[in-house]
Structures are given as C-alpha cells and as structure tokens.
C-alpha cells in the first residue's frame, strides 16, 4: 500500500508537470524552432511578450476583459446571494439555480446564445459583448463564494449591532458587508482567472474583431509555432502558482477547498 | 444566518437587478437560440425567422450521430481515466502531512488555472516530433527516430483527462478529508490489510462521490472545445467543436442551435443526477 501511495503520487506529479517542463525548456531555446536538446539559452521570447505590439495588445485586452467581467460577475452575484440567503423569498431555489446554471452548462451553449443575441441587436463584435458574456457565465463563482459565507456567518454579530441601536442599513454597511469582503475577493479572483483563460465564448461572441490572449495563442498555433507561445505559457503558470501559494500561506486554502479541519488534523497525525 | 428576515419592497428592488440581468443576458439568449434552431438558413451565413424542422431533422443524420456518440464515448472514457488516478491520489493526499499536502494542492490548482489552449499546446509539444517525449528517448539512445504521437485519439483523451483532473480532485477532496482515520483503523484492527481496507471500506463508502466526480468530468469534457481542435483530427472532434464550427466557419447557426439544445438537455440530465447524489450524501452525513 505504501508503495502504491508513492507510485500514484509520483505518477500524478509527472502527469501534471511533464508537459509544462517540456514547454519551459522550449521557451528558453535560443533557436526560433522547437528543438531538443535546446540550443543556447535566451530570454528573448519573454521580452517579446511585451515588446511585440500584437502580443502586448492581446495581453492588455484580456486583462481589461478579465477585470471588467469579474467586476460585473461580482455585481450580479452579490445582491442575489445576499437577498436569497438573508430573506425569506419564495422562489429561492429557482432563482439560485438561475445563477448557477450558466456555469453548469457547457460554455459553447452560452457562447452560441450570446452570438444569436448580439446578432439580433446588431451590436456586433464589440469588447463589451465579451465582458457581459463572461460576466454572466462566471457570476456563478462569486455567487457560490458569497452564499457560502452568508450561510456560515454568525447571526449574533448582526443582532449585537441592532441591539446597540444600528438600523438595518448601518448594520449591513458596518457588519455584514465587511464580513463578506473576503468571499467577494475570492469570487472575483476565480472569475478573473477563468475569464483570462476562456476561449470559446470570446471566440463566438467577437472572435474576429476582439483578439484575446487565448485566441491569439490559438491563432499563432494554427499558423505555425513561435517560441512566444511557450514563454506566455510559462508566465501564466508562474502567476497562477504564486497566487495559490499566497492564498495557502495567508488565507485558509484547505478550508476554502472544503476540507474539514478537525478530521484533517486527526488523519494527518 | 440562523433566521431569515421578511422581505420588504426594497428587498425585491435589490433582487430585481441581478434577476433582470440574468434574464436578459442568459434566459433570453437561450430562448433566442431555441427559436433560431427553427429558423431558415440563408446561404452566406445568415438566417431568417421561419418555422421549419430541417435543423432538428439533421440531428438524425449520420454525421451528427457519429459526433454525438464519439463525444459521449470519449467523455465517459476521460471520466474513467480521471477517477482511476484522482481517487487514489486524493485519498493519499488527505492522509499526508501538511507541507506536502498543501504543495500538491497548489500544483493541482495551478494545473486547474491553465487555459485549455495552453494545455492543448503543452501536450502537442510533449507528444510532438520536434521537442517532445520521443526526442528525449532518441537523445537517451532508446529510439532511433523521433515520431509524432499527435494528432491522435490518445492525445485528445490525455488532454481531456488533464484539464478535467484538477476538477475531479477538488470534487473528491471535501468528502475524502472527512473520511475519518478511525474507520480505516477499525478495519485494520479487525485484520484487514491496507489494500483490502481500501477496496472493501474506502471505495464502497465513497461510491456516491466517485459517481458525482465521474459525471462532473463527463459534463466538463463534453464542453471542451480546444483540446479536440488542437490535439485531434476532424474525426476526433467533439460535439462542442462541431457546434462552434457550424456556428462560425460553416455559418449554419440554426443547425448549431439545434445541436446546442441537444447538448443542453444532455448536460441538464447529468447535472440533475449529480445534484441528486450530492443532496443524498449530505442528508446521510
């Protein structure tokens, strides 16, 4: 069993890391083509990400879409999660499902629906179409994060504020809202990262006029390999690993992922 | 939040905003897509309002049935591959000390945050002929000549398993961390070997969550577009690729819409089953 444990763990690490390692090697190759073993060492493909205007504008465009759509997603999710969890609303299960559904269905469905919708309005190929489509599709993530925080919130805090004379508005502003900020940030961050990576919705909504980073990568792949693809990949991985390492160090990552702290401690002993 | 308050007019006003946005930008587009599936296609990429069943009839064509069966088949296979690796991995992970435990979770989450296009690209390099696995084998003297392992069915399956694997681990993780050590220790006190304990105690207890993880991988890979587009030949295309292709390059939106409705129905059924399983396991806990 012990042997199996190491075998499975080692296999998983190799499975997850091997393709990334190969790309890391390709990204520092001096040569313009893929070679193994690599010839020379160069970081030129990293600086090209910023000096090449086509890559830079794709990166900036993707960051703008991710930042705006994650804000839109959180703005849709926040009132929905708060009202459905704080008040007795008759249609709660239905309305909550409405917020979960976009993300539960394959993205191509949202993508095609949005394409038909924008075609009908005549407002076609704009960046804001992509922002709205992403915002709706990823609103599920902040919705779940905020709803979970509402469910585990200690109601005595709110009652204490009201006993001390705060009206509902002040209670919301000074007690409930600050307690929800961490989960809003978590939801925002999740929507941001996934929007940055999303391809098919951006493509069908405005793929021929708004070139996001994933679309740019895919287009470059079709017209042949450039080492810049490898360097952008490595940048992505490093950024993601850093974000998650920080959230493990400074937040409670295990708890956020659903671990039960008490059982976990006993099992690790 | 123990007790819930009675809503006021203001509450409904606040609630109306997100509901209106979701209605306008999700429900209505979905309805328009349903309507478009009955529209008449005009050559040149346009369509006009009509009521005809041509696009729906094409759902019975060989080419669609082939794609649907292939998609469902490869997604089921990816689900099986993911569970076969992710279940023992997650089980062992939850029994590790804190430091390797957190480090492996970060690795899993980093893999999760990779764009599909990046996963497709990395596997195309690894399985390619220029700087991949076979080049390493040639360099080591184990092979004479580098070969390309992609595009191929296996490459698509590996790519799909790679993108779904982190999600599979995260689905299994909460319930496996709650599986108390006392349970496995009891079995071992009664004389079962660790191997036997795993098969006769851990796996049976986890059966519902294994099924839920399997079905989630199924729906998730069913929606994948780029993996099959990058790592496969046209005969390895999944339904999502076929739908997008019809909607953009073939400019047949009505047919794409009919297929999308089919995919929606299929996904809804599977998601419904998962929800049922999860609510049942929660009521048992």
Structure commentary:
The complex is a heterodimer of chains A (269) and B (285). Chain A is mainly alpha-helical. Helix content of chain A is 79%, strand content 0%. Chain A has helices at residues 2-27, 44-51, 53-86, 92-104, 107-121, 127-138, 140-152, 155-163, 168-197, 200-206, 213-222, 227-250, 253-256, 261-268. In chain A, helix 1 crosses helix 12 (227-250) and helix 3 (53-86) packs parallel to helix 7 (140-152). Chain B is mostly helical. Chain B is built from 13 helices and two strands, in the order αββαααααααααααα. Chain B has helices spanning 9-36, 54-57, 62-94, 98-112, 116-126, 133-139, 153-177, 181-189, 194-205, 207-222, 226-231, 239-248, 253-284; strands spanning 40-42, 46-48. Chain B has a two-stranded antiparallel ribbon. Chain B starts with 8 loop residues before the first helix and ends with a helix.
Secondary structure: elements and pairs:
The complex is a heterodimer of chains A (269) and B (285).
Chain A: H1 2-27, H2 44-51, H3 53-86, H4 92-104, H5 107-121, H6 127-138, H7 140-152, H8 155-163, H9 168-197, H10 200-206, H11 213-222, H12 227-250, H13 253-256, H14 261-268
Helix pairs in contact in A: 1-12, 2-3, 2-12, 3-4, 3-6, 3-7, 3-9, 4-7, 5-10, 6-10, 7-9, 8-9
Chain B: H1 9-36, E1 40-42, E2 46-48, H2 54-57, H3 62-94, H4 98-112, H5 116-126, H6 133-139, H7 153-177, H8 181-189, H9 194-205, H10 207-222, H11 226-231, H12 239-248, H13 253-284
Antiparallel strand pairs in B: 1-2
Essential attributes:
heterodimer; A: 269 residues; mainly alpha; 14 helices; 79% helix; globular; B: 285 residues; 2% strand
Uncertain spans of chain A? none
Oligomer: heterodimer
The tally of helices of chain B reads 13
Which term fits the overall shape of chain A?
globular
